[in-house]
Amino acid sequence: MGQADYTVRYDFCVSGTEITVLRDGQPIGPTFSTTEKDSKDSKSALHKFLVSIGRSRVDAHMVCELVEKGQTVHGVMGTTDPEELELVHPGSVAPGLLVALAKKNSRTEILELQASGVRRVWTVRAVIGSSVPLSGTPAWATQAAGDSNFLLNENPLSIYLHSGGHRAVYYDLRGIGSKSLTHIEVQVESSLPSNALLLARRPVNALLDVLTRDSHLPLLIQRMELISPTTGEVLVHELLFPQGHQIAIGPLGGIQQAVPFAPYDAIYREALTSSSPFYRLLCAARIFEGSGSIRKWIKEEAERRGIAVTMPKIPKVDLNFVKGLGVPAELLQNVANVQDLYGKFTDMRNAIAHFLLDKGEPTSHVYLADGRNLEVYSAAAASLLHYGHLMLEELRQFYVTHLPMRGSQILPMLSYREKFIVRASDYGLE
User: Fold this and answer.
1) How does pLDDT run across 212-233, given as a tens digit for each residue?
2) Domain ranges of the chain
């Protein structure tokens, strides 16, 4: 065997009983505990992780002994973790995009199962919660525990959902570690693992729709998990890709708001904090629908002030990036700029904004429980939000640069902060 290529630095930081791992200075999942002792007969999870990045059993045990004593260990060199997650589908990522992730060491099994063409019954597990992780590392998002106020008198509880005739599906409702519902398992027959995940969403969502209707509890799918037919472990995670970056702030006096853009900032935050690709698309469409107004206002304001400058051009679209998010190539024909892109999604926007469509079948509508609809709207929303935000930022920079605030303004000093509070009288309430 060749010498391992130790090019990656790992730090094992101890805080209380928790051990956080940094890889090249960036936190990664999972975390470990100092209470789990490593021994010759029982290897700890941290020991197994150290071996997986190329360290010997002796080195691994030495590091485990140090952190178990509460000491942080810096500068352990290793290789990349074979259990690190990689993107399976689609080709690119964006926040809020529905993606499939798997461990690197599962790649061979996934490819073999996809190519085998063998029809089998898959177990697909939906992790249930009242919220969806939207910020954090993908590794953390795939490990976030489900939670709900839906209690199980039997664990597991096997029930069916009947939709008439021979159309019935059985489910196993489970509470892992508690009586609270955390997982729903369903069996799907398919020759392709990708189809198993796609087809499982509809029946799981249909059951959650009924349970929510009757219980009035907000039950969401945090992520879907495809179970390996050979190991019984999770083979593929399907989830909304979270915002993974961190921001450090301070010391800072304050922030100057670009007031004309405040409504657009509110829409953008509304989109990013939503776990529904359908609603995210509506928010993205509102940004585009309002962009013409703010562009016209900026141009007219510049003319009123006698400022002769060229307005920012409509941004162009990187078709390879958008295709990578999962937008079909045929939908992108004749798309050159972001307005063209928005035009391609107008029908989708209308279909989600209205229950019934004016054209086509009189009863046609977008069934929100369907996995394929979620996938398509996820790609459309991620594309429009990306370019909608880019377009607004270019306009904002133009406004800040060429149309500064007129008149004098006070500098709010910390020593006089009592003067800078919210007053009901300013809003006509008292």
Assistant:
1) 999 999 999 999 999 999 889 9
2) 8-78, 85-240, 261-402
